[in-house]
Design a protein that fits this description.
Helix content: 25-40%
Structural class: alpha+beta
CATH superfamily of the largest domain: Bira Bifunctional Protein, Domain 2
Strand content: 15-25%
Bound molecules: histidyl-adenosine monophosphate
Strand order of the largest sheet: 1-5-6-11-10-9-7-8
Number of strands: 16
Distance between the termini: 47 Å
Radius of gyration: 28 Å
Shape: elongated
CATH topology of the largest domain: BirA Bifunctional Protein, domain 2
Number of helices: 16
Number of domains: 2
CATH class of the largest domain: Alpha Beta
CATH architecture of the largest domain: 2-Layer Sandwich
Largest sheet: 8 strands, mixed
């Protein structure tokens, strides 16, 4: 049997209502902050991701779906959106038309990770990116937007983790300091961390190995070595969050898995989704646009994992969505009335009703069962003696009330059902 690829999932009709609801909340909240939607292609030139996310990162080093197309170009299915948004921003000179551009997106992403609960190979993110200002107001705004979305979905077990990575100059000095510190315990570090010592020393903080974490307990933290401007901006972000009643904690180990960050970084974790607990992550990337060949333009943004968020909603039972229903189900009492039912259904649908009927010439009992399965608010019976005498019987399935309506008065049915 052919099956969906490992790490990918079908989103079946029974789950769609939750997805659409999430998408609606995302769109409404971003729109209220005047973010505009952007859609970019599913694949890009591989170089875009290598140059932005960083050659040494897990994403670029191990997880990208990369292939050579027939034109011999190396292409990659997008593992994240920030690089694509920045590419589009530069390509279309969007900074020329508007000094501050605020974008949001909802899109599938692809990473060849080891699948487990909360971790897929095709997953979905929504996110926002604000390009054009270094103002820490935007750092706070971005965090507030995602916090509002998550709490708007009824999620309660949330922790905002905040850190600042400073700018590359101060970070380089700190990296040397950290390397010196770790070199003393080099032999006790795990193999992976030892490898990272030269290439990507900061990522050692991400190690899941307990003995590594033990060593790191007395390590110097980057937050204590960042430059003056980063420090001041960080204070502003913290104050704005306090003022907006967003609870947060400082996590000096929060280094994030992508290389483009400067200054503020953050994640929001849920206590309800198991080991893959980050519902979202983001931060500032003031050098990325320039790094990809654009005019120097600061940026800040985040992305959130939609599967994880819906999983958290399920575990916290936070979404109480109404049962889905249809407005009207037409039941035919005579088989030879099929084309009449076909016409009527089209007529009622034109009147903005959600309408269905039986295509399989089933018994009246089976049609009634189907109407109940679809949770039909009304059922319309066509056929029999009533039809012969020029009437249709409309039944309100909630109250059980029935009403006879003249065959020349279909608009009355629309009015009654619409209410
Ligand atoms: P990220 O931390 O790599 O950041 O991903 C953001 C979120 O996407 C994660 O917190 C998680 O919820 C979800 N996610 C990541 N990988 C998977 C996976 N394999 N399966 C399910 N969910 C996953 C970024 O992508 C950056 N572009 C965020 C950003 C935007 N920074 C600035 N602007």
């Amino acid at each position: 049997m052919l099956k969906a690829i490992t790490g990918t999932k079908d989103i079946l009709p029974t789950e769609i209502q939750r997805w659409k609801y999430l998408e609606k909340v995302v769109e409404e909240i971003f729109t209220s902050f005047n973010y505009k939607e952007i859609r970019t292609p599913v694949f890009e030139e591989t170089a875009l991701f290598a140059r932005s996310i960083g050659e040494e990162t897990d994403i670029v080093g191990k997880e990208m779906y990369t292939f050579i197309d027939k034109g011999k170009t190396s292409l990659t299915l997008k593992p994240e959106m920030t690089a694509s948004v920045v590419r589009a921003f530069i390509e279309h000179s969007l900074g020329k038309y508007q000094s501050l551009n605020k974008f949001f997106y909802i899109s599938p992403m692809f990473r060849q990770e080891r699948p487990q609960a909360g971790r897929q190979r095709q997953f979905h993110q929504f996110g926002g990116e604000a390009l054009g200002s270094t103002s820490p107001l935007l750092d706070a705004e971005i965090i507030i937007i995602v916090y509002k979305i998550l709490s708007g979905l009824g999620l309660k077990d949330l922790t905002v983790k905040l850190n600042s990575l400073g700018v590359p100059g101060s970070r380089e000095n700190y990296k040397n300091l950290l390397r010196e510190f770790l070199n003393d315990s080099k032999d006790k570090l795990s193999g992976d961390s030892r490898k990272r010592l030269d290439q990507n020393v900061l990522r050692i903080f991400d190690s899941k190995v307990e003995s590594d974490q033990e060593i790191l307990k007395s390590a110097p933290f980057l937050i204590d070595y960042i430059d003056e401007e980063s420090r001041t901006d960080f204070e502003v972000v913290k104050n704005l969050l306090k003022q907006s009643n967003i609870p947060f904690e400082i996590d000096p180990k929060l280094v994030r898995g992508l290389d483009y960050y400067t200054k503020t970084t953050f994640e929001i974790v849920s206590g309800k989704v198991g080991s893959q607990s980050a519902l979202c992550g983001g931060g500032r990337y003031d050098l990325l646009v320039e790094q990809l060949g654009g005019e120097p333009t600061p940026g800040v943004g985040f992305a959130a994992g939609m599967e994880r968020i819906l999983f958290a909603c399920e575990n916290e039972q936070s979404l109480n969505l109404p049962e889905e229903n249809i407005d009207l189900y037409i039941i035919k009492l005579d088989k030879n009335l099929s084309s009449k039912v076909f016409d009527l259904a089209l007529y009622f649908r034109k009147g903005d009703l959600v309408v269905d009927y039986d295509y399989l010439d089933r018994s009246v009992k089976a049609q009634m069962r189907e109407a109940n399965k679809f949770n039909a608010r009304y059922v319309l019976f066509i056929g029999g003696d009533e039809f012969q005498s020029g009437k249709l019987n409309l039944k309100n399935m909630g109250t059980g009330e029935q009403k006879l309506i003249g065959l020349d008065n279909y608009s009355e049915i629309i009015n009654l059902v619409r209410k």
